[in-house]
Amino acid sequence: MRTGLGAIISLSRQVRRAFRRRAQKTRDAALCKRYLILVLVSEGQSSVSIEHHLKVARAHVSRTVRKYAAQGEAGLQDRREDNGNRKVDEKFLSVLQELLGQVPTECGWERTSWSRELLAREMGKRTGVKVSRSTIGACLHLLGARWGRARARVLCPWPQARRKRHLREIRKMLSNLDAGEEAFYLDEVDIDLNPKIGPDWMLPGQQRPVITPGKNVKHYLAGALNHRTGNVVWVEGDQKRSWLFLNLLRALLRHYCRARILHLILDNYVIHSSRIVRTALAEWGRRIQLHFLPPYCPDENRIEHLWLQLHANVTRNHRCRKMAQLLTKVHRFLKNAIPFPGNQPSLAAVRAAA
């Protein structure tokens, strides 16, 4: 006498073979599992063994068997097409994508960042469609949205028209370079012996330790990225002073001794316009010309992308106990990065990981 689920249905050998064939031919993975559930139950398998074999819940096993017993093979079909019109369509996704470009406070909420529950409530207000937070999660996956850290940014104090005009002048200069002229993006970067702590892949319940030396030691690099070739010239020192910037200018004059004019695109850091720098520039005449970017415009300085990748590949979560070890890795990275960007990861990928 059969007990359990096997007592509810009884399939002949011919029917079991037919269900196996249908499970193999169907492209619906869920329907395939429902056919196999009936076959295994009729062969005397328990719901526990079916759970481990097909990776389904035991409740799903019993529900499938009871539906088949009550409705026959029609009970195996997915009835979600009878639910009515789909709630999530292209219009819904476009509204959600537009919403992700705003912050909750701009929409009248007190919260400063979006949660799936809050997105569902705001989408209900905007579209009249009420969905669950799990549906919002699926929509976010469709849009390729990710849960990441925001990037701090300071707005340029210049009026927008002045900022755009100044940037157009720099781009015009770059596009009209003569054969005897070279243009470079200049900036400095801090190298800290205490590692920059950043995200990494870790197993559940584990947190990767990063041993820090304790007392920090700082080193500085000043670099120049060639606008045309992507070659990088850099110098280093233990202080970020005007002489570090002047050493970089001297290195550029040596490397590009045949160039008539060197155009340097750089930020407004104080060491770039100190008295000692102005004196040296007067001695070199018009051979070196400085083009200062508007304040707080790091994205317009291409060498900032190189420093971003330097931190992502070398200084973040590093385990060097001595500055000499860390600088060896920094030098190796810079040599391999030339010409930049070369085969380096994209800026978007680095920022996603940052």
Number of domains: 3
Sequence stretches where pLDDT stays below 50 over 5 or more residues: 345-354
Helix content: 40-55%
| CATH superfamily grouping of the largest domain | Ribonuclease H-like superfamily/Ribonuclease H
Number of strands: 5
| CATH architectural group of the largest domain | 2-Layer Sandwich
Number of helices: 13
**Residue-averaged pLDDT:** 88
Report the structural category.
Answer: alpha/beta
Query: Strand-and-helix sequence, N→C?
Result: HHHHHHHHEEEHEHEHHH
Strand order of the largest sheet: 3-2-1-4-5
What does this structure look like?
By secondary structure, the chain is an alpha/beta fold. The protein is about 45% helix and about 10% strand. It is elongated, with a radius of gyration of 32 Å. A 5-stranded mixed beta sheet has the order 3-2-1-4-5, with helices on both faces. The protein has 13 helices and 5 strands. It folds into 3 domains: about 5-80, no CATH class; about 90-145; about 160-200 and about 210-354, Ribonuclease H-like superfamily/Ribonuclease H (Nucleotidyltransferase, domain 5). Mean pLDDT is about 90; it is low at about 345-354. Helix 10 links the parallel strand 4 and strand 5. Helix 1 (about 15-25) runs antiparallel to helix 2 (about 30-40) and helix 5 crosses helix 6.
What's the short story on this structure?
The protein is of the alpha/beta class and 354 residues long. The protein has helices spanning 13-25, 29-42, 47-54, 58-71, 90-100, 116-127, 133-143, 160-175, 242-255, 275-284, 303-315, 323-337, 347-353, and strands at residues 181-192, 218-226, 232-237, 261-266, 288-292.
